[in-house]
Design goal:
CATH topology of chain B: Thymidylate Synthase, Chain A
Largest sheet of chain B: 6 strands, mixed
Structural class of chain A: alpha+beta
Shape of chain A: globular
Strand order of the largest sheet of chain A: 5-6-7
Order of helices and strands of chain A: HEEHHHEEHEEEH
Oligomer: heterodimer
Number of strands of chain A: 7
CATH superfamily of chain B: Thymidylate synthase/dCMP hydroxymethylase domain
Radius of gyration of chain B: 18 Å
Helix content of chain B: 25-40%
CATH architecture of chain B: 2-Layer Sandwich
Strand content of chain A: 15-25%
Radius of gyration of chain A: 18 Å
Shape of chain B: globular
Number of helices of chain B: 7
Strand content of chain B: 15-25%
Largest interface: A-B, 44 and 48 residues
Largest sheet of chain A: 3 strands, antiparallel
Number of domains of chain A: 2
């Protein structure tokens, strides 16, 4: 059997995207004071049947990706659980007690409603995929306008939609702010 | 060798072709049936023309009135009907109410602790005071209010950005009726982008349209097959005649559509 992995094209969407930003981007200042080159609007597509989209042109700390996702799914908002598992990627934004405010995990698992209830968006997605797979409303949003002011960092990966086309689940992730070399390779691996 | 001149509307026609070629048959909430693809993006440079489709004559007035209705924060069809726009009638209850749909979420997102947030005013403030902000986002997807809405938002979330002195806008649309809805949505958000740029003294940049479940209803297939045989005319221009004090004070008479030449309208039934 031929090992097709050895014959994958060198160029890939992520690296092409990086070239696109580098060659056509506009110089732009930013919140952190560092300065960026930026483009607006881009889309990439990864067929997960072809493999797990983990960037290979630079070694990525896979364990941190997985631990962070499990932390989101716990509905957790404190860095302690991450730190106990050797993951420090959120430390810079945490308060003295490790709290980050109502970030992704809280909005995914426990979106507060004005009536005092909470909505578990992830459980709702699973239920919809199982019971109404043709639904066009299988969505998770982290952009809770009410809570933005309380978050240590506003959501970058804002909105996930999932569709179940015949026998396959497809997922679209909407990111408001994308940072190359450090931030980008993570969320692509996450939402798979 | 024949050179085909680039026309932005070709992106829309190519989207139709993509769905006809690769689309999967899929039942849907309305019971009509669709051909669908997942995930698509189009880009329109608004400096090159107003992206009102020319391969089918569109009722531009309804598009503009509906946008003004959103900006009013209105969620009742009465004002639309008074202005001779009936596009929301099928979903309204006996009082004309639609629940807390777009206008409500854009202008009056209610928090669990009783605050009221005007996302549009906040967006204008950010564009003016913090143009490099990457948080210029407006969401209609208020998870807590979804059950009360007569129709869950299709155009869920949009983001603006200022780069090189130009205002860009990207829309994320979760569910996209390519024949009937998408032409409206493109023009609607392009107009919104023009108004935002106008208020903030910026040039217009790109309007980026991103769709999730992008589909053609089964009872629109003959219509789209007709439409893709048509060659687009040059795009019209949209001029703003008056600059009010705020984004809230535009009127339909402030907009002038110039040079709109289009092929005949094609009828199609809306799936409710």
């Amino acid at each position: 059997m031929i090992d097709t992995h050895a014959h994958r094209p060198v160029r890939s969407q992520y690296e092409d995207f990086m070239r696109h930003v580098y060659t056509t981007g506009v110089t732009k200042t930013d919140r952190t004071g560092t300065g960026t080159i930026s483009v607006f609007g881009h889309q990439m597509r990864f067929d997960l049947r072809e493999g797990f989209p983990l960037v290979t042109t630079k070694k990525v700390f896979t364990k941190a990706i997985i631990v962070e996702l499990l932390w989101f799914l716990r509905g957790d908002r404190n860095v302690k659980w991450l730190q106990e598992r050797g993951c420090t990627i959120w430390d810079e934004w945490a308060g003295p007690d490790g709290d980050l405010g109502p970030v992704y995990g809280v909005q995914w698992r426990s979106w507060p409603t004005p009536e005092g209830g909470h909505i578990d968006q992830i459980a709702e997605v699973v239920k919809q995929l199982q019971t109404t797979p043709d639904s066009r409303r299988i969505i998770v949003s982290a952009w809770n306008v009410a809570d933005l002011g309380k978050m240590a960092l506003m959501p970058c990966h804002v909105f996930v939609t999932t569709d179940a086309f015949p026998r396959a689940a497809r997922c679209s992730l909407r990111r408001k702010s994308v940072r190359f070399t450090c931030g980008k390779p993570f969320p692509r691996g996450h939402h798979s | 060798m024949t050179t085909v001149a680039y026309h932005p509307e070709n992106q829309y026609l190519d989207l139709i072709r993509r769905i006809l070629d690769e689309g999967v048959e899929r039942p849907d909430r309305t019971g009509t049936g669709t051909l669908a693809v997942f995930g698509h993006q189009m880009r329109f440079n608004l400096a090159k023309g107003f992206p009102l489709l020319t391969t089918k004559k569109l009722h531009y007035r309804s598009i503009a009135i509906e946008l003004l209705w959103f900006l009013r924060g209105d969620t009742n069809v009465k004002w639309l009907q008074e202005n001779k726009v009936s596009i929301w009638d099928e979903w309204a209850d006996e009082n004309g109410d639609l629940g807390p749909v777009y206008g409500k979420q854009w202008r009056d997102w209610v928090t669990a602790d009783g605050r009221h947030i005007d996302q549009i005013a906040e967006l204008v403030r950010l564009i003016k005071k913090d143009p490099t902000s990457r948080r210029q986002v407006v969401s209609a997807w208020n998870v807590g209010d979804l059950p009360s809405m007569k129709l869950a938002p299709c155009h869920c979330l949009f983001q603006t950005a200022v780069m090189g002195g130009k205002l860009h806008l990207q829309l994320y649309q979760r569910s996209c009726d390519v024949f009937l809805g998408v032409p409206f949505n493109i023009a609607s958000y392009a107009l919104l982008q023009i108004l935002l740029a106008h208020q903030c003294d910026l040039e217009v940049g790109d309007f980026v349209w991103t769709g999730g479940d992008v589909h053609i209803y089964s009872n629109h297939l003959e219509q789209v097959k007709t439409q893709i045989t048509r060659t687009p005319f040059p795009l019209p221009q949209l001029r703003i005649l008056r600059k009010p004090e705020s984004i809230d004070e535009y009127r339909f008479e402030d907009f002038e559509l110039v040079g709109y030449e289009a092929h005949p309208h094609i009828k199609g039934a809306v799936a409710v």
